[in-house]
């Protein structure tokens, strides 16, 4: 491999990492991080540290098996148990579509904050930009560039706000290893929000499309998977510190929009506008990530979809935007699909761990036992989260039907 090929591969690996990271950094990510900081204070640092470790374990297992096999998640699931891939694809596509409505709404709200335009008009403008990405000849490279640039912008702007809020960094460091209290459900929620649903597979599927597979690339694939989690972790830490500075100063966050009030209270009107940029970047990259990954789960089942996947991605984005523009965010659908989404990670990660020892999937590759054992712990924890989510949301589901 010459220098030019090595540089091109590095760009794809970085793009895959940022696709995964920015897919998880959506409007919900911003709200969850702020709300848990308000609830747990400096002890939320412990939650972040532990979830980064759990996320790395999940991502390393999934990306390695995808990379070794050269198969997408649904094909691996079908190899483990015939028909399971169709079920997993159904869950991920339904979840991706429902949450994409929220991502489009978040992007629209970001433009509303920046320019005062109607949220629905902002959503349509954002959708058009996302569609343009998939109309260019080399859509993969365009997606890599946009998600990498947007991720860098979000981190830099949040770093500025975190600095201006003057958080008690010393206390945050201490409580990250010695928390005053441990909120188990906060840990589970953050893990699910970072590597749940389609997010786990976004970067891995991107590497398949770029042809970066096989045991000879396993080191690079592993580094890329860890990089994606670390990018997400940096963003989470900076947002946590920004919110912690505001909370520690005794200021009250706006319950209707906690992350916006963090930026505004920390840096005034400028901070509020910066929040608009961050929210739009989070929304637009999550729209792209959700659409790309959801459609990638359909490509194995239809030659027509596989050949015309960019057009299908565009249709996915357009449909999500129309739903939001015409009927808003359908609460019933979001509640039902959101509940099912909690079941996806333990199923998919469990399948990956079984596939790691299936010669039809990985051939002669030997998966490290320590990685399997730690992956099993994540499966058990997220399965508990999924079951508790179903139980807690059952009354809402019944009411929505």
SSE pattern, N- to C-terminal = HHHHHHHHHHHHHHHHHH
Overall strand count: 0
> What is the mean predicted local confidence, pLDDT?
91
Largest sheet: none
Helical fraction equals over 70%
Shape: globular
Assembly state (oligomeric): single chain
Rg estimate, integer Å: 20 Å
Unreliable residue stretches:
none
> How far apart, in Å, are the first and last alpha carbons?
57 Å
Structural class: mainly alpha
What proportion strand?
under 5%
Helical stretch tally: 18
Give a description of the structure:
This protein is mainly alpha-helical. Helix content is 82%, strand content 0%. It has 18 helices and no strands. The protein is globular, with a radius of gyration of 20 Å. The mean pLDDT is 91.
Could you provide a short overview of the structure?
By secondary structure, this protein is mainly α. Helix content is 82%, strand content 0%.
Keywords:
globular, 401 residues
Topology, pairings included?
Layout: H1 3-24, H2 27-40, H3 44-69, H4 73-80, H5 84-115, H6 119-133, H7 139-164, H8 169-177, H9 184-195, H10 199-209, H11 218-248, H12 258-296, H13 303-307, H14 309-327, H15 331-341, H16 344-355, H17 359-362, H18 369-400
Helix pairs in contact: 1-7, 1-10, 1-11, 1-12, 2-9, 2-11, 2-12, 3-8, 3-9, 3-10, 3-11, 3-16, 3-18, 4-5, 4-16, 5-6, 5-12, 5-14, 5-15, 6-12, 6-14, 7-11, 7-12, 10-12, 11-12, 12-14, 15-18, 16-18
């Amino acid at each position: 491999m010459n220098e030019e090929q090595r540089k091109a591969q590095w760009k794809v690996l970085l793009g895959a990492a940022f696709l995964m990271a920015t897919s998880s950094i959506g409007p919900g990510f911003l709200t969850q991080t702020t709300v848990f900081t308000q609830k747990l204070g400096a002890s939320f640092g412990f939650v972040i540290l532990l979830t980064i470790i759990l996320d790395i374990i999940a991502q390393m297992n999934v990306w390695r098996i995808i990379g070794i096999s050269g198969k997408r998640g649904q094909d691996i699931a079908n190899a483990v148990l015939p028909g399971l891939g169709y079920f997993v694809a159904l869950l991920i596509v339904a979840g991706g579509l429902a949450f994409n409505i929220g991502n489009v709404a978040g992007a629209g709200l970001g433009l509303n904050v920046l320019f005062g335009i109607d949220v629905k008009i902002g959503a349509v403008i954002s959708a058009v930009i996302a569609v343009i990405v998939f109309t260019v000849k080399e859509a993969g490279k365009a997606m890599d560039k946009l998600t990498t640039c947007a991720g860098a912008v979000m981190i830099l702007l949040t770093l500025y706000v975190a600095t201006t809020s003057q958080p008690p960094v010393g206390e945050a460091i201490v409580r990250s290893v010695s928390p005053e209290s441990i909120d188990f459900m906060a840990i589970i929620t953050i893990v699910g929000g970072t590597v749940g649903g389609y997010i786990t597979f976004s970067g891995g599927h991107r590497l398949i499309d770029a042809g970066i597979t096989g045991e000879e690339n396993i080191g690079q694939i592993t580094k890329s998977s860890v990089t994606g989690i670390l990018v997400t972790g940096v963003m989470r830490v900076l947002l946590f510190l920004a919110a912690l500075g505001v909370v520690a100063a005794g200021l009250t966050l706006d319950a209707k929009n906690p992350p916006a009030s963090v930026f505004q209270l920390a840096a005034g009107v400028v901070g509020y506008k910066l929040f608009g940029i961050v929210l739009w970047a989070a929304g637009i990259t999550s729209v792209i990530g959700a659409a790309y990954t959801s459609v990638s789960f359909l490509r194995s089942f239809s030659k027509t979809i596989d050949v015309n996947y960019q057009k299908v991605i565009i249709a996915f984005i357009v449909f999500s935007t129309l739903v939001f523009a015409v009927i808003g965010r359908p609460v019933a659908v979001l509640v039902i699909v959101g509940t099912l989404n909690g079941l996806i990670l333990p199923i998919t990660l469990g399948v990956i761990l079984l596939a790691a020892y299936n010669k039809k999937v990985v051939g002669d590759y030997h998966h490290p036992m320590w990685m399997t054992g730690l992956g099993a712990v994540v499966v058990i924890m997220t399965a508990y989260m999924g079951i508790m989510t179903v139980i807690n949301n059952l009354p809402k589901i019944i009411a929505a039907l």
